[in-house]
């Protein structure tokens, strides 16, 4: 993986259990998503609660009219998380 492959990167603050969808108007190969502190799990007093973050890169099939209008994304990065408190999440997408 080289820096030339990186299409876009970003950061977000994750709280609670939620998700975000980030549309892109180009086709992408893959994405990486992780906690900024590289600590996958933070354990709380409740041993059944663990922080996690995951992502999917969704390719969209488009009709000919969508292509002519040029307003619909070709790819969407969907990031989901469940954290106790607040965590920084960093993401990158690659062409």
Describe the overall structure:
- 11% of the residues are buried.
- The protein has one domain.
- It is 6% helix and 56% strand.
- The protein has one helix spanning 64-69; strands at 6-24, 30-35, 52-59, 75-94.
- Strands 1, 2, 3 and 4 form a four-stranded antiparallel β-sheet that branches.
Major beta-sheet overview: 4 strands, antiparallel
Segments where pLDDT lies below 50 for 5+ residues? none
Q: What is the 3D form?
A: elongated
Number of strands: 4
Quickly count the helices.
1
Average pLDDT works out at 84
Q: Percentage of helical residues?
A: under 10%
- Determine Rg (CA atoms, Å): 16 Å
Strand content: over 45%
What number of domains? Answer: 1
Q: Report, as a whole number of angstroms, the end-to-end distance.
A: 11 Å
> Structural class given helices, strands, pairing?
mainly beta
């Amino acid at each position: 993986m080289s820096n030339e492959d990186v299409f876009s990167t970003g950061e977000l603050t994750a709280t609670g259990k939620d998700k975000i969808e980030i549309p892109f108007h180009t086709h992408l190969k893959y994405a990486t998503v992780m906690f900024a502190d590289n600590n996958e799990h933070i354990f709380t007093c409740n041993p059944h609660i663990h922080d996690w973050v995951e992502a999917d890169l969704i390719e969209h099939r488009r009709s000919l009219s969508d292509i002519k209008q040029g307003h619909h994304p070709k790819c969407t990065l969907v990031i989901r998380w469940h954290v106790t408190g607040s965590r920084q999440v960093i993401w990158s997408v690659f062409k």
